Amino acid sequence: xxxxxxxxxxFAIVAVLFALQNNVPVTVSVFAWSFSGSLALVLxxxxxxxxxxxxxxxxxxxxxxxxxxxxxxxxxASLEEQNRDLQRRxxxxxxxxESLLAAQALAPGALIDTTKx
Length: 117
Known about the structure:
- By secondary structure, the chain is mainly alpha-helical.
- The protein has one domain (2-105).
- The chain contains two helices and two strands.
- It has helices at residues 2-21, 39-106; strands at residues 25-30, 33-38.
- The chain has a two-stranded antiparallel ribbon.
- The mean pLDDT is 86.
């Protein structure tokens, strides 16, 4: 975070130095619209407009990836809950099997053939 702040301050200093050195008046004409201002102002305005357009173009992709990430996190949480439920059920079935085997061991004449399915 501090590096980003230092980079922003450095960029601002460079922009101010650029504006002080390039104060030549220029005229920008687009179709019927005309704008006059200093060279630095026109270039910084173009830079800002380009950054705004780039942000608007990339925002749908970023929003989509955030939605996908949230959906995948919910899916992982659901699968983890299912896994816990299945492990709990497996532990219950193992306990039942052990109790059945223990009951079989106590009844000497009752043999259960576990090889048949």
